[in-house]
Amino acid sequence: MAAKDYSRMDQLRDRLKPWKIGFKRTWGQFTESPVGLIGLVILTVIILMSVFAPYIAPHSLEWRAYGDGATFEQMASLPHPPAFGDPFFAPLGTDSLGHGIFTQLVYGSRTALFIGLAAGLLSSLVGVPLGIISGYYANTWIDEGIQRVVDILYALPFLPLVIVLVFVRGMSTTNIILAIVVKSWLNNAIVIRGQVLSLSERPFVEAARASGASDFRIMFRHIIPNVLPLSFVYLAQDAAFAILTQASLAFLGFSDFTNISWGVMLQWIQVEGYVYTAWWWLIPPGLMIALLAASFYFVGYSLEDVMNPGSQS
């Protein structure tokens, strides 16, 4: 029994060994890119900010400057610029209702990361399998059907389509993610299809077919491991695109206002009319949106250089 268990463990190690070697090689090449490391550092900092938000934020989201018994003169002083203990502690100032900007910024990172990662993952889960199937069954009715759907969706303008879908289904975070995914999976499918078309002509795939391997086995054992690294590149790009799209929707008023987000902060300052007077309210959320989107783009750009060295200039 022990020998049998050891044999199974040994087989598992043998199967995982190529993945382990590939990961180490990819990580080593990735760390040679300053842009990729900068993106990874920014992304890590924002992830830590979202995880430890209750410990980093100086106040809760319900906190208001001057408290509930604020006088008319105190309310008239809002939005208040940064204050460090006199008359209250708000390192990035407050909005027009007295809520701390820094607190909203910290908790808003959760919404941004959730939307970015969820939309990126869903885009990959839809686009990558469809791209593999379309490429493997090229020039068949399956391929034609998938490509016609892609062509139709590509013909529709992105932001108006997302706005219509959110308006019809409701302005919840889940519906915003699904609306973004409706079109963001298209690039995944097209690029993966092209990669699979190339892989299908490789000798190892032809050898697997000749040995009698099923289509599912060939796709799972030979195609997916070769296209998976490329899918991570587009996952990072889709995440960045989703973050920018959600911020645009929030600024236009199509967002879930029950969840604090950086886009909602920008929309609120525009509605209140303090865009040109409350810099401490305007700049931080815009800067955080740019940093988070850039971090995903930097990581995706570096991964693309690792996966496709020929793309480097």
From TrEMBL:
The keyword ATP-binding does not apply. It comes from the Archaea. One of its GO terms (cellular component) is plasma membrane. It is found in: Cell membrane. Keywords: Cell membrane, Membrane, Transmembrane, Transmembrane helix, Transport. Its main location: membrane. The chain crosses the membrane at residues 35-57, 112-137, 149-168, 274-299. Belongs to the binding-protein-dependent transport system permease family. This is ABC transporter permease. The lineage of its organism: Archaea, Methanobacteriati, Methanobacteriota, Stenosarchaea group, Halobacteria.
